[in-house]
Amino acid sequence: MAPDLARTCLACVEISSYGLPSASRAFGRIRRPWFIFTQTLSRNGIDGRMNDSTLDIVTGGAGFIGSHLVDRLIAAGRRVRVIDNFSNGAERNLVQHQGNAQLEVVKADIGDKAAVQGLFEGAERVFHLAALADIVPSINEPEAYFRANVDGTFNVLEGAKAAGVKRFLYAASSSCYGIADAVPTPETASISPQYPYALTKYLGEELVMHWAKVYQLPAVSLRLFNVFGPRARTSGTYGAVFGVFLAQIKAGKPVTIVGDGTQTRDFTFVADVVSAFIRAAESDRAGQIYNVGSGGTYSVNRLVELLGAKETVHIPKRPGEPDVTFADTGKISRELDWHAEISFEEGCRVMLEHIAYWENAPVWTVDKIAEATRDWFKYLGKE
Fold first, then answer.
1. Whose CA is closest to 315, among 246, 377, 272, 242?
2. Is the CB of residue 236 less than 8 Å from the CB of residue 362?
3. Beta 268-269 vs 37-42: how paired, if at all?
4. Interaxial angle between packed helices 241-250 and 300-307, expressed in degrees from 0 to 180 and rounded to the nearest 10
5. For residues 374 and 239, what is the distance between their CA atoms, to the nearest angstrom?
6. Nearest to 88 by CA among 71, 65, 104, 69
7. Which residues, listed in sequence order, are joined to residue 99 by a DSSP beta bridge?
8. CA proximity to 358, closest of 224, 252, 226
9. Rounded CA gap, 57 and 79, in Å?
10. Neighbouring residues of 298: CB distance < 8 A, sequence distance ≥ 6
11. Rounded to an integer, what distance in angstroms lies between the CA atom of residue 26 and that of residue 23?
12. 254 preceded by a cis bond (ω within 30 of 0)
């Protein structure tokens, strides 16, 4: 028997030039849950609804990148079904669409094959973004990461294959390159994942490419470099630098700089990443892997300067992390005519405009970071 699945239809708002809803709507607090109705899955999909050629599935659609993608798809007139277990995603990331019949949200875990069985019926395209994403906790929880990022990807692929979707887009990670042997880093660079998150995301990509080769699934993988923007995760885990810094600044605490801050990252704004997904979805390319980066690389010290941090403190550099991440985006530029448009400086300005999003995020101190990364140093600090 198919499981009962919580679902709801969520109000479109005006989309800005960055593809972001207004802060007043997008970041409002939710006082009651949306998922108050249950519906049994039928053989024809959820209640037989939304089964037409404009239906897109977005796994992880309540998350950081996924919710921005949902905004763009709905603005383009697409119908969207989000599949999310809300372990990382947040209801407030989709509140701007409350009451909009173009959007359906299914609360389900992609790691549970029975829970997602049949959810892909009627879909034209699948955007697979659901994953466990913070790198540091993956050291302590490799099984959870494998279940979400490998088993979950298998389940999504099987669902998409059974539904005969026309396009499958996978959110891969540039962390697969590890400490890259070439900078800027092309897609042909050596693969050397340094920690379980990087490994499981790469294994997910390998599954996607295998399904494209063997089963002719029209799939494309996008290796994302250091994505930032409004709605970046505010979970209780020690994660991406923007969320850590903005929560510290909002709380009036020192910003914790890893090492001397001269390390650089290819910080890529979320609206540009969404554009890459759309461009890939609208193409006829299949079985291809593309880097998605900003076209530059920027130091952590420059980030601290642009965010206007008044006080800083330095913490030990972590083993296994590169000094530089910098995507070679020549392939995606040539084949998909895509390039980033939002500058690092403009992206930081937008982040500061939305700093209220991190008001209730955990504030990381030197001691808390040391505790959270203890096993990281234990396992990756060996010669």
1. 377
2. yes
3. unpaired
4. 30
5. 14
6. 65
7. none
8. 252
9. 9
10. 264, 265, 266, 267, 344
11. 5
12. no
- Is residue 145 part of the annotated active site? The answer reads no
Is 70 exceeded by the pLDDT of residue 58? yes
- What topology does CATH give the domain 4-226+269-294+324-341? Rossmann fold (3.40.50)
Query: Measuring CA to CA, how many Å separate 91 from each of 52, 54, 85, 98, 255?
Result: 26, 24, 11, 10, 28
Residue of 18, 170, 197, 357 marked catalytic: 197
Contact by Cβ (8 Å): 210, 352 = no
Indicate the pairing of strand 298-299 with strand 264-265: antiparallel
- The Cα–Cα gap between 266 and 344 comes to 9
Q: Residues 196-216: pLDDT tens digits?
A: 999 999 999 999 999 999 999
Query: pLDDT tens digits for 74-108?
Result: 999 999 999 999 998 999 999 999 999 999 999 99
Q: Which amino acid is at 357?
A: Y
- Report whether 41 contacts 107 (CB < 8 A): no
